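Below is how a single chain appears once it has passed through the pipeline. First comes the sequence as given, then the structure the pipeline wrote out for it. We keep one example in the README because the format questions we get most often are answered faster by looking than by reading.
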Amino acid sequence: MIPQTFNDWRNCNVNDCKINLTKEFSAQRLAVCQNSQNIETQKFVSIYGELHLKNVVSWFSQMI
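Resulting structure:
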C-alpha cells in the first residue's frame, strides 16, 4: 500500500519500517528527493510516480 496522507506515511515509516524520522534523517532524505539527477530519486519516480514524490517531499519537509 502506498500511503496517501502524511499520517499514513509517518505511521508506515515509524511503526512498520521502524525508521526514526529525526530532523537530520528527514533533511538528508529530502535532499535526495529534491535532486532529480540522483539515481535513487529517478528509481523512486519510475516505481511510484511524480505525484508520490511530491507528496514525500512535502511530508519530509514537515519533519524538519
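Residues 1-39 form one domain.

See the next section for the split statistics.
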